[in-house]
Amino acid sequence: MSNILDDDKNTKISDYVTANIKDGEKYMEDNMPVVLYRLIQYSIKNTLNNECGNEKADELFRKAGYRAADFICENISDNLCDINNFFNEIQKKFEYFRIGIIKIESWSNEKIVVTVSENQDYSDLPILDKTICVYEEGMVAGILENYTHKKYKVKGIDCSATGVRVCKFEAEPEEKLNNLKEDENKDENKDKNKDILFEFLRDMIYNSNTSIPDEKDIQPENLKLFKGLKKLYFLLNDYKKIAEAMSNGIFPDEKLIEQNPLCSPIKSLEANLKHLVWQTKKVAEGDYSQKVYFMGEFSDSFNMMLKQLNQREIMKKEELKKIKYENQNLHDTNNMLVEISDQMADIILIISTDNKLIYSNFNEINKNNSDKKTFKCLFNKIINSDTHDKQWEVFLETENKYFGISSFKSRKDNQDVYFHIAEDITSKRFKEKNLEEKAYKDDITGIYNRRYLLMKMKDWVSKKIKFTLCFFDLDNLKYINDTYGHVYGDSYIKEVVSIISSSIRENDIFARIGGDEFAILFKNCE
């Protein structure tokens, strides 16, 4: 397969950017057209090839990638953390800046394999017979050297130019061939010492369970640095303990803070927090005059909260004053109502929510035993009913009396109570019953009339109650009335009604529907 980047090929820059861009736009953002990316990259590469030759152009591209790695590691990553965290951070930054997606495929002392994929569609780039990602080779070498402090030779070994572009790189440590063997051993020991001290520094920052290196493994020229790191290790441990305690609201031993030069800001924070705790206690006791001026934005929020609490306290006192005034008015009104109720004929009862009689206008001294019994029955009916806040009616069976009751909830003497006003409506109900009997009963026989029979039939039909309807009439009633008079005729009717009434059930409906015509509804009878 021909290489379109070789100098001996008559290849133009337009050859790199005239692909079908529309097919790739669905994989990218609108603000990064792939045509611009290709134009910049391959125009520079083409120019360097023409001016310097392929080998020199590749070298310059690698150096540019190496410089980019220096910038990335210096500005957007932390090369003190462990390898996984380091590359996770690099990966996040690459994705954020839309450089690509970098991954470690394998890692050993002899060889490291890294892949870089790009978030553009290269499906229309020509398929090449060699890799062209020399810039990325330099970038990967620079990233690895920044982390390990060792130089690496990086070579692209595979470049997929279909779909999402993925380039694979192999990185091998460079050997120092021009040094003597003893110098190599000495440098190796130095590097080993540097690695030990570097790992110790990294662990004390990022790991909670850090082990201190053995002093015998440290070269004399590095002992001073080692002792300084060791001192820093103990100071950092104490600092972490102090910070953790304060994050949990615990103030640590002041001597521990005094002895640790790293804790100057914490000492100031501790003093501020202790004063703030004292002020908070004063606020809890009702002193809203406290102010905080030493904690920046927190001071503004704290002081605003105190202002709002003070305003609410003022509003609360005014509301309590208003409630107290209203309660006094209510108390006076209740007393006035009690005085009025004593003069009323109706029975008034004030009963607590636990069914205790608080007040009644029923004066037992001036009442007979019958009235006392009626009152007792009425009271029991009320407390055993769950009817409140409405008009209702009760019938006292033993007294044969009806009472209409108005009930509503209120307050008396700072407790919830129910007011019940009972009116004796016995005579009213009896009058209604008499009227009802006249409306639905036959005057001569006392049994039901035609109106009641039709009403009952309609009711049973609507309720789907089964019944049997029986019609019959009396023979010779007209002859008796004409021969012996209506008195004998009425006696004849009453006698027949008496016989039939004693022969049917109580829940059957017996009615006179005409002069000599009668009907019976037999309930639930087929």
Features:
single chain, 526 residues, alpha+beta, 15 helices, 18% strand, elongated, disordered N terminus
Largest sheet report: 5 strands, antiparallel
Number of strands: 13
By helix and strand content, what is the structural category? alpha+beta
The proportion of residues in beta strands is 15-25%
Spatial strand order of the main sheet: 6-5-9-8-7
The whole-angstrom Rg is 53 Å
Give the number of helices: 15
Q: Which outline best applies?
A: elongated
State the helicity in percent bands: 40-55%
How would you characterize this protein structure?
This protein has helices spanning about 15, 35-50, 55-75, 85-95, 135-150, 180-205, 220-245, 255-260, 265-285, 295-340, 370-385, 425-440, 450-460, 475-485, 485-500; strands spanning about 100-105, 110-120, 150-160, 165-175, 345-350, 355-360, 390-395, 400-410, 415-425, 450, 465-475, 510, 515-525. With about 525 residues, it is an alpha+beta fold. The strands form three sheets. The protein has a five-stranded antiparallel beta sheet with strand order 6-5-9-8-7. The longest helix has about 45 residues, at about 295-340.
